[in-house]
Amino acid sequence: MAESSTRTVERALDLLAVICDADGLTLSESSRAVDLAPSTALRLLRTLETRGFVRKTDDGAYLPGSRIIQLGAQSLSSESLVTLSRPAMERLVAETGESVYLSIRGHDATGLYIAIVEGTHSVRHASWVGRTVPLERSAAGQVLTGHTPETGYVVVERGVETDVTALAAPIRSEARTVAALSLVIPSYRVAPADIRRYGPLLARAAGQVSAGLGRTTPALPPNGPTRDHPSTLTHPSTPNV
């Protein structure tokens, strides 16, 4: 029994490895790659899909799922994504005065905030590190799902929070979007002219991080996704919660 269970785990890991190495594999392609019967491969892939380790596209291809992000987060390299991104985030705060977030894909169609450099205004967005936002209603989510327009950044007003405007730009590695950099601003303070100025600054900052990814192999911090929380526009005299 133990030997059978071990073999099942080995087969599942082999399948997961070939899917992660490829840009989408069908059932027949993945089963051939690891020398498994299609019925066995299908059973293992369904289990991996249920657990979020792989996802199936509409055309039947299997791709790495969001849980791979959390697994990768456990093996930090000497240069983490957060450490690599922080200088660009700090420069962006200095240029705009607004809070800057770094986010990655979380589990169950969410984006996960993994780092922040807080803005300098008395009223600012804060304390969302470790929290999640829906991919379909957030600027970061649009970027993380590959829906960045030619401008290089996304703008969402009154998306996840009715009193907040967010801008986001993609951080890419080998042509794939691996993270999003976001400016999160109280809506009362942002005008169209601000968006026109902030957007290119944000896209440039994200591009600088992307360039850094070409020189190192980043890993992610060990934060798992959490449930969503209400808005948190804070004042320095109020603890960030």
TrEMBL record:
Q: Any idea which UniProt keywords this protein has?
A: DNA-binding, Transcription, Transcription regulation
Q: Identify the domain of life.
A: Bacteria
Q: Name one GO biological process term.
A: negative regulation of DNA-templated transcription
A Gene Ontology molecular function term for this protein is:
DNA-binding transcription factor activity
Domain HTH iclR-type, residue spans: 6-66
Residue span, IclR-ED domain:
67-215
Q: Where is the composition biased (Polar residues)?
A: 231-241
Asked if the record carries the keyword Transcription, the reply is yes
Fetch the InterPro entries from UniProt.
Answer: GAF-like_dom_sf (IPR029016), HTH_MetabolicPath_Reg (IPR050707), Tscrpt_reg_IclR_C (IPR014757), Tscrpt_reg_IclR_N (IPR005471), WH-like_DNA-bd_sf (IPR036388), WH_DNA-bd_sf (IPR036390)
Q: Does the keyword Transcription apply?
A: yes
* Region Disordered, annotated ranges: 213-241
Full protein name:
IclR family transcriptional regulator
